[in-house]
Amino acid sequence: KGPDPDLVSIVERMATVKHKILVLSGKGGVGKSTFSAQLAFALAAMDFQVGLLDIDICGPSIPKMLGLEGHEIHQSNLGWSPVYVESNLGVMSIGFMLPHPDDAVIWRGPRKNGLIKQFLKDVYWGELDFLVVDAPPGTSDEHISIVQCLEATGIDGSIIVTTPQQVSLIDVRKEVSFCKKVGVKVLGVVENMSGLCQPITDFKFMKMTGTGEQRDVTMWALDYLREKAPEMLELIACSEVFDSSGGGAAKMCNETGVPFLGQVPLDPQLCKAAEEGRSCFADKSCGVSAPALKKIVEKL
Ligand code: ADP
Predict the structure, then answer these.
(1) Which residues bind ATP (predicted)?
(2) Which domains does the chain have, with CATH numbers?
């Protein structure tokens, strides 16, 4: 029996891709796609040629997070063409193939694996410095499939995104163990949503009245500060939203021997950028999360 012709085609396709990075998470909703999208934006802003492949077949959020909703994939004689945000940032997702964004994709394993193979062998990326793969949460068919398909061409490693709570960290340990079993290096863990951080001027200040109602006193509070302590208006207020008394991702990394890449705070401006499909690095609006994300990208 000769070599699998699909794998041969994948190896040929991937020959023009220098680095392949998987973005993983144990749970959904921890910010994996947000991180993948912003990582792609950051690498593209550094003038790398970047591809972003979304294999979260049941919940593809990458088209929206890159401002590409409603776009379709075109076929050329070289293969499927990614949808381009900029000339050096191409995106491929099943989201581009669904006639209606609300359509549910209810597929069993083999069909999902088939699509992943097709993405890898039929998409014409051209020369890429980085291919960032946004995987679904957990360790399921799609993960085994992508690793098997890319094994022969080499994967640089995985980045695991988590929140600080134990419930998420327990699943990260599973993700680390999966990577070890299948021989994928863990480049590191990102702790996302590590506290809510906002410029003090973005807060709403409330006062409890005697009858238990809340009164908005923002104007008064900010005017007071402006007059009495203007330097306080430059402060960024942070509060821990999730319980990290267990030491968070840093401690877990220490215990499992994988690198800790850093923390990204919960930043309403980052959420807005993601909703609007914008890079958080493009303007100064994501003042608290963009520097944190940039530091992480520079560590890779
Ligand atoms: P996942 O891919 O892990 O399911 P998403 O990336 O879709 O998670 O994130 C879930 C939601 O949380 C999205 O609305 C996203 O914009 C928001 N989000 C993620 N990270 C942050 C953050 N650091 N600050 C604010 N909102 C965030």
Answers:
(1) 26-33
(2) 5-195+241-299 (3.40.50.300), 201-233 (no CATH)
